[in-house]
Amino acid sequence: MQTHYSDLLVIGAGLSGERIAVEAAQAGFGVTVLSIVPARRSHSSAAQGGMQAALGNCAMGKDDCPDVHFLDTVKGSDWGADQEVARMFVDTAPIEMRRLAYWGVPWNRVVPGKSFYFKGGEKFEKVEPEDRAGLITARSFGGTAKWRTCYTSDGTGHAVMCTMDNRCAQLGIDVRDRCEAIALIHDGQTCFGAIVRSLRSGELSAYLARATAVCTGGFGRIYKATTNAVICDGAGHIIALDTGAVPVGNPEAIQFHPTGIVPTDILVTEGCRGDGGTLLDVNQDRFMQIYEPEKAELASRDVVSRRMTEHMRKGLGVKSAYGDHLWLDIRHLGDKHISTKLREVDEICKYFLGIDARTQLIPVRPTQHYTMSGIRTDKDGAAYGLTGLFSAGEAACWDMHGFNRLGGNSLAETVVAGGIIGAKIAEFLGGHEVKFDTTLVRQAGAQAEERIKAIVSGTNGHEDVYKVRGALQEALMDGCFVFRNGPDLEKCIDTLHEVYERSGRVGLRSNGLGANPELAVALKIRGMVKLGLCIAYGALARTESRGSHTREDYPERNDRDWLTRTLAYWPDGAEKPVLKYEPSSPVYELPPGDRGYGGGKIIPADPASLTLIKKEVKG
Amino acid sequence: MARLLKLNVFRYNPQDPKSVPHLQTYVLDETDNMTMFIALNRVREEQDPGLQFDFCCRAGICGSCAMVINGRPSLACHTKTKDLPDEITLLPLPVFKLIGDLSVDTGVWFRAMYDKVESWIHTRKEFDPKALEERMDNAVAEQIYELERCIECGCCVAACGTARLRDDFMGAAALNRVARFVVDPRDTRTDKEYFEIIGNDTGIFGCMGLLACEDVCPKDLPLQNQLGYLRRKMGITALKSLFSRK
Amino acid sequence: MSSILAMHVAQPSRRDAYLDWLQMLSGAALVLFMWSHMILVSSVIIGPGAMNAIAGFFERTYMAQIGGPLVFAAFLFHFVLAARKVPFRAEKQGVAWAHAKMMHHRDTWLWIVQVVTAMVILIMGAIHMWVVLTSLPISAEKSAARIQGGWWLLFYLVLLPMVELHVSIGFYRIGVKWGVIKADARSGAKKAENILFGVFMVIGLVTLVRFMFLAI
Q1: What is the ipTM, given to two decimal places?
Q2: How far is A496 from chain B (nearest CA, A)?
Q3: Which CATH number fits domain C18-212: 2.60.40.10, 3.30.420.40, 1.20.1300.10, 1.20.1290.10?
Q4: pTM for this one?
Q5: What percent of chain B clears pLDDT 90, i.e. is strictly above it?
Q6: Hey, which chains touch B, using 3+ CB pairs under 8 Å?
Q7: Which chain C residues are Cβ-neighbours of B209 within 8 angstroms?
Q8: Which among A59, A105, A111, A238 is least surrounded, fewest beta carbons within 10 Å?
């Protein structure tokens, strides 16, 4: 087993991982970045919409400022966010957008003069100010007071990813693709790096580092219907959870996207609705205005997903071989708009559905989309439970999204958090020394080798890993999707325990040599089921509806009892997760209130308890 | 009614001493709206769990799944089986190093390319966090983005006659990358500096104009126009220095 | 100081750029020559007198005696330049052939056509030029005699399409390589390429037929 050493090991070369790497490398530290795919293929590049930052340059973003952005973010989170973190985020975001412009992102810019936009299918006029010409412009995006989403046509994530990876190349950062971390090296107190499997040769190596950052994105692939890339299977969460010391925060906080195309669940951006696209039912009638008279199609994504599901449950969905769906209509936006501003959407329709969005309707349904849940960290990005372990981006629960993140906030988070946490890691590296225990490293390597040997030779059994994964995905679709309730969750948990047991008996049907793909899944399957169980237990315990966590049997938001964050630990050898709780936020700059959309009753918190939370955390 | 598809897939695992390169045939029933992503995953899950191929976004955004489908380098994820005949032959991309079966190493190739063309903005300015961003014409931003759309799938390189004949040819992806910085006003490099990178037969003058890059590019990048533009620009740069020297 | 530094800093070579210019210019010049040549020779269709008058003009102005060898030189020069891009080792030829077969791509095939025609033209074109230039002056009767001799007809029936293919493809290729033909004009340019090929083939064949039946 080869051993590599660096000051900082970043696992995952998406936007947050590379942003951290850039920050640490600029501070003079040696950084190694590992990725299972070439960096630019990371799922960050698939984010089409944009990044939210209160620059306030465009006409519709006039008078925007971080304070307004903060209100939108905290309200959007349904008060599940850590308000200190949300505040840091909104204050830093505009600077970060400018920094990205300096590094090379071709942001769309303000074009002065008259132009038109669509809202809810109607045409409006706006006049862009002359004095802002050429500054970074913004577009409208689900659930914000102002137009605040910076974008580059329909490929913001891709463009920023290119720039960030260019920056890494410029700094000479060692970015290695086709490397998958399969275990963290730790002693229960401190993290020393990771055991890594090469996805070229299958060989194992040890990557030692004084600091390790997990930036592996979300874990949507544990659901059957998801907009996530196939690599978003929770590999980073699994190795963190496996330590027994690091918790997953708010596992039940999973967001669903209203417009995944049927059947491949490829996301068509919210920009469609932002630009004036409408949703139609089986009778080709609009329906969102019935549920959300004010915002209609522009309501936040969890509200839209839920209303779509509700409408389909009334029997108004379009029947198809893949189940019910609804229609997204962007025909009225016209050829020019569709072929420039919504080009990626146009391509998706052409390439993956074989339809022309100028004349035809797009079949859509809600699918899993984003995990607000993630490795719980403090505001510096340091993971709970292990010194020297950090996390950022979708992989982390930092936690600015709470129970619902706003479109455009997550992509902005990757770089904003990456910058903040990268600086904190550099600070940490300045004062943190470790002694590497070679026995510990060798043990971790030997353990991984033994696991692999057992799976390849089938000593534990011969369960088909793809079937086990299928069972996990189905169970979550049934019990932990847009709507949740006690009995279904209990049933889901029973099924998942069965699946968990099967996952321990997985054996390969292929030979396992080289970069064997079956082995890659087999090494993760048990962890994937663990994550599923964390979601289900977390969702069952949380007897309220908050953000994207919707309990049919507990429709009210309960601030009295549930203004908390779930922390799911999986102690070594345990059969199920151990749930702990902490206050949602150490401080309440914005006291809990009504989001102004989504409806639902609120059981208010005892104001005294909020102060108490404040004191407890500060003390 | 559903067709039976015959997939002839290149198989070879360099890490397995017993493996020899060969075509293996799988038979699969076609379903509605089937893409090669669905087909290959079904083959792996139902018939051959060790089959190696790369998918990531499965939405034509990331460029992972380029392979040679019935002779043409293209993205498997946006290839619909209904557009193909009953018999489909899948080969790994040429030029790039084979990892196994349909999987090739584009990552290392492209990282070397970034270093070669210095794929980043060259500027002497420092970033000032307190200042407004520098203004840019929106049309220029869109022009940059137009070229930035490259997803590094490698199709253009695999389809390139020159790249097949000489290992050191940069390929359309690299030349397009240079064009991206040429149009970017933030990059202060001069034509002469760009000439140092691409003004030779490993660069723009190695291009033989077969235009397969243009014809296979899954993102429809304007490669033909960019290559022509760079050839003229670099050709003129060379002539200029012929007269300006001493 | 700069001179001292310059001794150790490799100057970027402009060689490839110049060679590429020369390849293009020699190619373009030869294309224009070939078209003029064809048109001049085809004057025999009007009558041997017309052709002889033109030939005589070139003879009297010494353009045939000097221009002829110059064209021959340009022809060899162009070959040497273009050959830099042509695979001569069997292994590379195999790669190029396999590539074209795999791609099912017209422009890639056209390149193979260009390479193959180039080799044929190199030999046959050289023979043609040698024969013509060593027996100056040119006259319709001499040409007709050669063609009516038998084997020479076959020779020109092979050389004619080779030249016309190479010339029209080359003309198109220069256009796309140097960005004169833009992407949206490409299919039009291809059509033009086909028409040029067709027109000159017809002129060439008619000229040959005319020579066949020209009374010596």
Answers
A1: 0.95
A2: 21
A3: 1.20.1300.10
A4: 0.92
A5: 90
A6: A, C
A7: 107, 173, 176-177
A8: A111
